[in-house]
Amino acid sequence: MGDGPLDDIPQGGWKAAHGWAMPEPVEPILVVLILLLAMYFTRRKDYAILGPKARFEPVADEESPRSSNEFDAADHRTNPHPPKVRSLLWVRFETPNSSIFARHVHSRVLQKFPFLVEMFYWGISFAVYRATKDLAAAYYGGQESMWDNARLHGLMILESEALLWGGGREAPRRWLEWRIQRWFLHRSEAGDVGAWLLTILNRGYALVHVPGTVFFVAYFYATTKSHSRFCTIRRTLTWTNLLAMCCFVILPTMPPRLLPKHYDFVDTVSLEDAESVWMAGDFVNKLAAFPSMHFGWSFCVGCVFVADSGVLDGLSSCIRRYVLRLDDDDYAAPRKTQPQPRTESAVKLFIGIAYPTFVLTAIIATANHYFLDAFAAILVAAIAFASNRFLLVFLPLEDWLLWALRLEKPIPTTGRKRSVVIK
Fold first, then answer.
1. CA Rg, the chain, in Å?
2. What is the rounded distance in angstroms from the CA atom of residue 260 to the CA atom of residue 264?
3. How many whole angstroms separate alpha carbon 418 and alpha carbon 223?
4. Are 297 and 400 found together in one domain?
5. Mind giving me the DSSP string for 309-360?
6. Are 268 and 202 in contact (CB under 8 A)?
7. Residue 64 falls within a domain, yes or no?
8. Number of domains making up the chain
9. In 3D, which of 303, 414, 423 has the Cα closest to residue 356?
10. Are 190 and 57 part of one and the same domain?
11. How far apart are CA 320 and CA 328, in angstroms?
12. I need a labelling partner for 372 at 20 to 30 A (CA). Which of 5, 83, 155, 287 fits?
């Protein structure tokens, strides 16, 4: 691409070279189908909702213990449902133990399908997201002021990035996002195999984000080795989301596709009529570009797959042995585990790298995000992972909510808890 005038626009403007006709309900139907399948495959087997209601025996849980002292048999003889002891900062206090309601029908439904709890957690996250647009408008004194500031924030990001790789060109050629999208637009007009690239990215941007993350949560819940590990990843995703939503309120940012037309970005997703049902409507915050949760979630998912591939274990061993020159006696030997098949390891490593790479390409090529949005998402995800246990401060609220609903939290079917027998 040269530095001459912008004379590369086809006569009649950019048009969708290809398009996949897809009814609007497809995405929500896909999400519901994933959730229903997850409920079925993670159900507690050999447990009847309307079966015998035997005496309830509390079972230890890594994340939310059901009593103040679950392993004190004498305490359970005097009070089978002792209050839970929680702490907040330096204050310790008691909360009610909802295990007394374990025989209720709605508690037994949750016990049969414990994945319903995960759906509830994500429902809360969506409700908070829905409020970010109204909170941002209130923070900036109205919709018009919010949109004006969001446009300025978007242009500030472009110009900040141009200082790194603009090459002294005039706008919009000094913006890397513009140059990348232009390449894909020209390929779309070429009429060869490359013409499908942009269509794939358009559909990927619209359809992969929510269904892909929901599928990952369901997959990880069903396959991870321990419930505590699942809770760490779930808290990280949730905390990443909540931290990003604070940015959406304080720093609303207009994506490139919504910038005024003279900046020459193209809304390729709309061009192909490939919008998701969650990309329009009153419940969508169109100014939630910084940081990019499309990339933030995909980055988290990618990190989990890379970690599960075992590559990092081998890399750590090589660093200790060949870089730090440590002998086996200089560090604790790793715990013996069943070796992972090489094919499985390779597949996980490929997914861990390819998935966030695809999402990064999609958010840039479709003019929905800036590179700085993706970098900020990595930073937010790292902070969320390091501080994910902060969300445990909400456990007392969960205790009171369960008590108010006369509902007992189910024993999860993740990891070794899958084999717990409950009557």
1. 25
2. 8
3. 10
4. no
5. HTHHHHHHHHIIIIIS---GGGSPPPPP-PPPPHHHHHHHHHHHHHHHHHHH
6. yes
7. yes
8. 2
9. 303
10. no
11. 9
12. 5
Pairing state between β 84-88 and 91-95: antiparallel
Domain that holds residue 207: 118-386
Collapse the DSSP code of 173 into the 3-class scheme (helix H, G, I; strand E, B; otherwise coil) and give the result. Answer: coil
Q: Cα separation of 167 and 174, whole Å? A: 6
Q: Position 107: which residue type?
A: S
Is residue 129 domain-shared with residue 172, that is, in the same domain? yes
DSSP string, 378-409: HHHHHHHHHTGGGGGGGHHHHHHHHHHTT-PP
**pLDDT value at residue 26:** 78
- The CA distance from 122 to 118, in Å, is 6
| DSSP per-residue codes, 179-233 | HHHHHHHHHHHH-STTHHHHHHHHHHHHHSHHHHHHHHHHHHHHH-S-HHHHHHH
pLDDT in tens, 217-263: 999 999 998 898 999 999 999 999 999 999 999 999 999 999 998 89
One domain, residues 103 and 196: no
DSSP annotation string for 252-296: -B--GGGS-GGG----HHHHTT---GGGSSTT--TTB-SS-HHHH
**pLDDT tens digit string along 369-382?**
999 999 999 999 99
For the purposes of burial, counting CB atoms within 10 Å of the CB of 333, is it exposed (0-12), middle (13-18) or buried (19 or more)?
Answer: exposed
Residue matched to tokens 């990035």 = 161
- Extract the tokens encoding 178: 């513009």
* Segment 120-179, tens digit of pLDDT: 888 888 888 888 988 999 999 999 999 999 999 999 999 999 888 766 678 788 899 999
Asked if pLDDT for residue 61 goes beyond 70, the answer is: no
Tokens of 415: 């990891």
Q: Do 97 and 84 form a contact (C-beta atoms < 8 A)?
A: yes
